[in-house]
Fold:
Amino acid sequence: MHPKLVVKIAYHFARTFGAGMVSFAIVGIMFSFWPIIRAELTYRFGTKDQIQIEKLAPGSGKAKAEELGINPYFSIYIPKIDAKANIVPNVDAGNPTEYLKALSNGVAHAKGTNFPGGGKTIYLFSHSTDSPINIARYNAVFYLLSKLEKGDTVTVFFMDNEYEYIVENKFVASKKATQELGDDGSGEKLVLQTCDPPGTSLNRLMVVARPIK
Structure:
């Protein structure tokens, strides 16, 4: 075979192979980060779920949860960011093996903290991980948690009942901070936690909400 022909074939093969690898990488990135992209699009352009849920009668917790596609036994819905997920109860926040398994199925409820209606602290978390590839798997539910502001509402469904909370505070704390896990005697409060910035374990973003009376 003529040397020039060999070079041309090798060049075309390398170019085709390179283009294929780039396309594969783009598809892979889109697939991995689709939950985050979807969350951003939903937040910016609205969601039908919020319109549908308003048609249901106040207090119909089970019906609302089922309309949203989440478990009425224990789940969370945040209208502003269209975050909705089942909650896995009694998860050891100090055991990575246990909480990462729980977070692949939804939001985790910290073991040792209370439940809605109990008058004490309810602590829910959805960690991100050190690997950006895992952001979509472990952090998509609370990815937009930083968008919440004072006065926004959070709904928790528990044992077929609906519990409404209103955000009163938001702050970033050290990853070693544990003060919000305990009960300070101030009454019932809902604490939502995720890692900040997303895809790292540098800090914790905390959102504190109180029951709507």
In short: The mean pLDDT is 76. The CA atoms of residues 128 and 139 lie 5 Å apart. The domain at 48-211 is CATH 2.40.260.10 (Sortase; Chain: A;). The radius of gyration is 22 Å.
